[in-house]
Amino acid sequence: MMKDDLRLPKEALVNKFVAKTRFYEKTRLSSKLQKEFVDKIKRITWKYKLADSTIGIAKTDTVAEIQVFEIELKEQKIPKNVLKIIDKIIPYQILYRFVHEENVAYGISLKDGGSVGNYYFSDWNADMRFDFSGIDLGLVYQKLVKAFLRDEAKDKDDFNDIVSTDQKIRTMETEIASLESKIQKEKQFNRKVEMHSTLLKKKALLADITGGLE
After folding, report:
1. What is the per-residue pLDDT for 3?
2. Which of 17, 25, 51, 121 satisfies CB 3.0 to 4.6 Å to 65 for a cystine?
3. What are residue 205's DSSP bridge partners?
4. Would you say 128 and 147 are in contact if contact means Cβ atoms under 8 Å apart?
5. How far apart are CA 151 and CA 120, in angstroms?
6. Over the chain, what is the mean pLDDT?
7. How far apart are CA 89 and CA 93, in angstroms?
8. Cβ neighbours, 10 Å, residue 77
9. Are the C-beta atoms of 136 and 59 separated by less than 8 Å?
10. Three-state DSSP class for residue 43
11. How confident is the model over 121-146, as a mean pLDDT?
12. d(Cα 7, Cα 207) in Å, to the nearest integer?
């Protein structure tokens, strides 16, 4: 196991293994999802608990605690469907640390109570810097999410605006990549010209959203 690089205070350390069967017992899982737990996850460790009682930062109505789960994987691929089950059962926001051999990646979801939104993941072995300070756990959670977002989205003041802008950038980039791929495969000249015109418009919209930075 690689060295823990989060540098959280020892008061927040839990370091307890969580049996995968615990998640089977809490909800009805299809045989396919149970197989994902077994085939893709080697071990789940509850590493840290960030709460008023452990780090002295006050809770909010929407963020009572933040957990850090370390998931040791059997292959270097993040099992997103499994995370949805974990987030459904655990009522707190979770920062995930994924480990496969000597490789590390991180993930987090937009979570508000029982509602789980988008997931964000780092690249493997990316230099992720997390700021665990704040006047309350709500702000700490927002900082953790922001660590995964595009720099171009962070010039907004409101957290929801930042998340919305980041999503627009991601969506536009996906659409542009898809269109570029289709243009490469298209045989008809007129159709290719039409698609290229659409591509230029989408690139202009992206440049407008990002302030010209790509």
Report:
1. 52
2. 51
3. none
4. yes
5. 14
6. 87
7. 11
8. 10
9. yes
10. strand
11. 93
12. 37
What is the token pair recorded at 188? 């008809």
Stretch 163-177: mean pLDDT:
85
- Based on the domain organization, do 142 and 167 belong to the same domain? no
Q: Taking a C-beta distance cutoff of 8 angstroms, is the pair 168, 156 a contact?
A: no
- Both tokens of 179, joined, read 């269109």
Phi, psi of 47 (to 5 degrees): -85, -50
Task: Round to whole Å and give the CA distance between 27 and 119.
Answer: 21
pLDDT at 113: 67
Pairwise CA distance, residues 118 & 123, whole Å: 16
- H-helix or E-strand containing 203? helix 189-210
Within-domain flag for 156: no
Cα dihedral 214→140→124→22 (10° resolution): -140
Q: Is residue 153 part of a domain?
A: no
The C-alpha R_g of the chain, in whole angstroms, comes to 20
Q: Which residues share a beta bridge with 18?
A: 44
Q: What is the amino acid identity at position 18?
A: V
pLDDT at 214 over 60: no
Could you tell me how far CA 54 lies from the centroid of its own chain?
24
- Domain hosting 173: range is 163-210
Asked if residue 2 is part of any domain, the answer here is no
**Is residue 138 domain-shared with residue 95, that is, in the same domain?**
yes
Note whether 37 and 20 are within 8 A (CB).
yes
Q: Is residue 155 part of a domain?
A: no
Mean pLDDT of 96-114: 90
- pLDDT surpasses 50 at 193: yes
